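Review box. Two proteins, two foldings.
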Amino acid sequence: QVQLAESGGGLVQAGGSLTLSCAASGGRLSDYAMGWFRHAPGKEREFVAVIRWSGRTEYADSVKGRFTIPRDNAKNTVYLRMFSLKPDDTAAYYCAATTRFALYTAAEYEYWGQGTQVTVSS
C-alpha cells in the first residue's frame, strides 16, 4: 500500500549532526504511525523514534534529547534529525509504517524502507 525510501545517511564525526529522510509513496503519511529503527552489526533491530497519527513523538532513552522526528505532510516525508552523534549511533537506519498500536516493536510495523547507513567516527 505504501512504499518507503530512506535517504540522507553518511559519514559524520562524533558530535556532529545528520538528517535522514523517509519519503512515502502510494499512501498518505497521515494514515500511519511512522517509526525509525536502527540495526547495528551483532545487535537486534532497535527502536529509535516514532511519530503517532496525532503528531505525538516518542524516543528511545538512548537518543532522547538528541534526535527529533519531524513530519512534512506537504512532501509526504518524515525525517530523523540527529545531533550530538556518538559512535554508538552507527547503524543502518530504517523507517517503517504501521496502522497498528504497538509502536515500539519492529514486528508490529507493516511497511519498511531499505535502510540508509549512518557511520559516526570517533
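Next protein.
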Amino acid sequence: QAQLIESGGGLVQVGGSLRLSCAASGRTANSYAFSSYAMGWFRQVPGKEREFVASIGWNEVTLYADSVKGRFTISRDNAKNTVYLQMNSLKPEDTAVYYCAAVYPPDSNIGVRASSQENDYNTWGQGTQVTVSS
C-alpha cells in the first residue's frame, strides 16, 4: 500500500488561501501506478463526524462537497505522486484536520473513479491541521 503524507496546513485569516499536498510513496515497478488511484480529501473537527471534501479519479473527473464547491480545487500530478487541494476564500467553518485518502484499483489494468464515500478508501494519511481565524 502507498503511504500518504499530508502537508501545507496552517493558520490563515478569513478569506485567505492554503494549498494542501498529499504525497504518496510506493510507486514502483511492482506496485500499482499512482495514476490509477482515486484520491480524496476529508476533514474532521472534534465532536463531529468526518466529512467528504473533494475527490479526483484516475480520469481526473472531480467531486466536491457542496460546502466547498467553487472555493476549493482538487488536482493531481501523477509524475510527482501527489494530489493537491487548493483552498480559497477560506471560512471559519473550514477549520478542521484534513485527511488525504487513496482508493486502489482491483488490478493494474483499470483506474478508480472519484468517490465521496469514506469506506471506499484503502489508505489514509495522518492529517494536517487547517485553522481559519475570524
